[in-house]
Specification:
Chain lengths: 314, 314, 314
């Protein structure tokens, strides 16, 4: 679609350039020529001057920060505009004419469904009811237990085991909000990357990134009924115990342990070798490894002390 | 089955009327002629005098409150009696001879299963492993990702998107209890209604109503791994973040936001435009919109103050 | 494989006996002749003297406690050694040449998959997308809703109902850890036993035992999105409400009630007729029935008192 089409659809003020062809949406940092980007949070202002995006939706007063060759599309609600626009660039469920490629010595049960463009390595087992989306890549010696669902574009490494019913690559939970209180879906066009030797339990959900990749790094072990939000990065050799959760865009360093029912807010980072006790809730980044408990979070020793003090109130 | 059969089965005292035909069970308020109802909680006593039920199971001392034409079946354990009885009126998995109707431009993957009596609108995609129960109605432009399960009688609006592995309409968690501590299932005969423009994440569960409908109203967005109990009503444009939950018969007003891992007890109502912080736990109805935190729940400002006070204990 | 092979694989010191054939791994207590066992926790030292295992991996200084006929394999990291070894004895996904046996009046939907060696009783319904593993035994009048997955060797009693998407018998979350911080999977070779009259909700997960059985006893009712870890025992007529969880090796006595989002740590026991309020967290065994709340857990009355005291801080 053309910039002219977009501006007309969104009723935006277009300086000129209306026949410029736009191929997709991306962040200011990652956009390449042909893509449109947006500024919805002032902390990304620093990315304006170096963006490669062909056009950027942003408040008019910030337009001067753009590179000379970048086309501004001005709006007071850039995030909402991007959400509306994202539907036009949403990836279809199927988008490949290539028959799936299945490696040697791999078993695909008859009721598994593998979309076109998928590539499965050797020595894999895809059990009954498994779904593999278009353009998914799966390494060698991967076991997908029954009814595992891998959404399009996911990349799964070698020696990965995913237990029954888990869902990899479902849409991140991202919406812009209108002044009337409606929620407009930001169609998610990123993916999930799961590295080698990862094991994922049953009925766990890992969302795809809105842009870029949600990543589970080498050797991490994820239990049952866990939520991992869009754009999270789980470092090498992490342990996440059942019913724990990561909100979007949070990063765990290597060898982080999260106890049962623990959780983090979004956009945080947790230092390597941190242990979060069961039920702990992280609302600020953790810069130093250690053992933490409670909600609000504190050092585990302090939490024990606090509980002792509270017991004395009785 | 006849009232005579029922009384014999349950060893209840039947005044007369044993050949009266009973067609189903319902609440005092919603029962129509031909149905049997029950009084198990004194707060519903007010519904006795106006019930349209043909017969009511209730303690004998309350029988005088019934309309003259309503037949009392007397028991000290009416809820247990109804649970025993409910098995006889449990809806079968399949109950239609009509082939399913699939609208124009809709795609049903080969391993999806659509029961008789179901109606699918136009422009829908039912991916692999999807199950559609008998008499389910689905609107237009609905996407059901792989392995979504829709139990019988559910009604899904237009432009609804449900991510992989979610279950809509599973039985509510309702039991009567014997004096010996056994739990007798109350077979659930209600349904789920999901209105237009709702999006539901992966591996979420929404139970059907025991009688009537569990409802998710227009434009609400429900994340992954969320539990919505029987007979809940989620208002328009609500947001429920991952791993949150609603116990049975709770009502959210419009534009309520529930943070991650938050929850409510049952039989509550939450005022419109209320925000419940992550991890908050609601045990009483909220009559005034605002931002609330903690368990027990309090205004978010108070919760912050309390945490500051607790920190000073250390 | 021979002990010689094992010692070579793990670089362990083998006294002699290298041609002794080993058939499996088991606990000290349950191992029979031909099996290898291990000592990784001093609380099991008492089982050394009476073990029937043919060989035991243990620290060299404990070898003298073994029966004279038992062969020691000495290591300072016995648990890690067992984890490495367990892969060799991991049960294959399929291990029977016998066609499944389906009882009279049982319905198996076309997209359900029943592995060889499984036995299904009479009057059962296995709906679309159900998976039944090898050597699974299912009683009579069992309903498995769509996409339920039963892993190999599970035993399901009569009149059991399991709602859509639940997973029974997925691998317990068990790993040994190397000094470099890697996690080595302990392949799980136990099973799950579900007794008569149990109902299980939607998208719940019950892990198999590492050795022996995870058990859900007669008449218990388990709601949606619940996690039950490996080797747990849920007593008769228990109630577990949605999003609650049991960590591994915990035992609930009969008629325990667990409220929504409550949880226990592992290796605990909870006394019969205990009620755990919603959100409560159990970190020590409960020896006396009663009503408990909070995290840390306390008597519900005390918890109410504590909340009243805290409210006065404001």
């Amino acid at each position: 679609m053309t910039l002219h089409d977009i501006a007309e659809h969104l009723a935006l003020e277009l300086v000129d350039f209306s026949a410029v062809e736009i191929t997709g949406i991306n962040t200011l940092k990652d956009a390449v020529a042909g893509e449109i980007s947006f500024l919805s949070d002032s902390k990304y202002e620093k990315d304006l001057e170096s963006t490669q995006a062909t056009a950027v939706i942003l408040p008019s007063k910030k337009a001067y920060l753009l590179p000379r060759e970048c086309i501004p599309l001005c709006s007071d609600e850039p995030y909402l505009m991007v959400a509306h626009l994202s539907k036009f660039f949403a990836k279809p469920i199927q988008s490949s004419a290539l028959s799936p490629v299945i490696g040697e010595n791999s078993t695909v049960y008859p009721t598994a469904h593998v979309e076109n463009g998928a590539q499965i390595g050797s020595g894999c087992t895809l059990m009954s009811g498994v779904y593999i989306g278009t353009n998914v890549t799966i390494g060698d010696n991967v076991i997908l237990y029954p009814n595992v669902v891998i959404y399009r574009d996911s990349i799964i490494g070698n020696n990965v085991m995913i237990h029954a019913g888990s869902v990899i690559g479902s849409d991140g939970f991202g919406y812009a909000h209108t002044k009337m209180g409606e929620h407009i879906k930001l169609y998610q066009n990123g993916n999930v990357i799961i590295e080698d030797d990862v094991e994922i339990g049953a009925n766990t959900t890992i969302d795809c990134a809105v842009f870029g990749s949600t990543q589970i790094k080498q050797g991490s072990k994820i239990d049952n009924l866990i939520q991992i939000g869009h754009n999270c990065i789980v470092g090498e050799h992490c342990i996440m115990v059942s019913q724990s959760g990561l909100a979007g865009s949070t990063t765990l360093g290597r060898n982080v342990v999260m106890g049962g029912q623990s959780a983090t807010a979004g956009h945080l980072s947790v230092a390597p070798f941190t242990t979060l006790a069961a039920r702990s809730g992280v609302t600020k980044s953790i810069t130093k490894g250690g053992v933490y408990s409670g909600f609000p979070l504190m050092e585990h020793k302090l939490w024990l002390k606090l509980q002792a003090k509270l017991a004395k109130l009785l």
